[in-house]
Amino acid sequence: MSIEIRQVNHPEAVKRFDTEELRRHFLIEQLFAADEVCLTYSHLERLIVGGAMPVTKPVDLPTPGAVGTDAFLKRREMGIINIGGPGRVGVGGHSHDLGPRDALYVGMGAGDVVFESANASHPAKFYLVSTPAHAAYDTVKISIDHANKIELGDQATSNKRTIHQYIIPGICRSCQLVMGLTQLEPGSMWNTMPAHVHDRRSEAYVYFDLDESARVIHLMGEPQETRHLVVANEQAILSPGWSIHSGVGTSHYAFIWAMGGDNQDYTDMDPVPMTALR
Q1: Domain boundaries defined on the chain
Q2: CA-based Rg of the chain, rounded to a whole angstrom?
Q3: 114: region left, alpha or beta (phi > 0 left; psi from -120 to 50 alpha)
Q4: pTM for the whole thing?
Q5: Tell me: the pLDDT tens digits for 123-133?
Q6: What's the CATH code, domain 2-276?
Q7: Which residues is 141 bridged to in the sheet?
Q8: Does the N-terminal or the C-terminal CB of the chain have fewer CB atoms within 10 Å?
Q9: Buried (b) or exposed (e) across 64-82, using 16+ Cβ within 10 A?
C-alpha cells in the first residue's frame, strides 16, 4: 500500500502556485500499480481517492492510519468503478463480479474488501473514492447498463457526451457520496463547458481511455483566476468547491466524477458564464 496526504488550499494561496505546486497539490499522478492499492487522503471533504490493480494475486484494501479507525469502512462508505478487465470485489465475504465500467457501492461497516482480476493478462483496474459516512446502506452492484443515462452536448461544440449516473438518489442509496462516469463521443473533446462551481461539494475526477501520447488540459481555479493542469491517462484531479472543473482533450476520452459534501443534488451548481472566465 502507498498513501499520500493532501491538505486544503485557500484560493488566495493557489493564485501564487507555479506549475509544480499545482500538480503537487491537485494532481494524483499514479493510481494503479501491479498488486498494490494506491491511496490519496485529501482533507477536501475527507475524500480518499485511489486505485487497486490485482495482477498475480488478490489484493486487500488496507486500513491506513489516516482514517483513524481499526477498519477502513468502520465510519466510511466507498464507490468503486472498474476501468480495466473483468474482475471481482469481495466485501465482507461476499463476491461481486465487475465487468468493465461496472460499479459497486460499499456501505459503512460492510467488512473487509478484497480485489481480484479474472485474467492476469488483462487485469481489472478498480478506481475507488471514499467519503465519511453516518449510516449503513446496502452494498449494491450497478452495471453500466443500469446506470441512469443523460445525453448532453452537441457535435458542433465538440462536447457531445453521455453521463452515466451510478451512485445517486433513485439509483443507489448512500450517505453523501455521488459518483458517475461521463463518456465523450469521437470528435468531442470538451467536458463541462460552460463551466460551473459547486461551493457545497468537493469533487474528484479521473481521466481515462486516453492514448499514451494524448492529454487532457484540465481547467481549474476561480472563474476570474483560472489555472490549468496537463493530465495523462488514468490520472486524477482533486477539485475544491471554489474551483471550476472543465477540460479539453487532444482526443475524446472518458472520466469518472465523484463528489462529497452538503447534499446529493446533482443539479446543485453555480454556472459560470463564458464572459466571466479569465
Answers
A1: 2-276
A2: 18
A3: beta
A4: 0.97
A5: 999 999 999 99
A6: 2.60.120.10
A7: 104
A8: C
A9: beebeeeebbeebbbbbbb
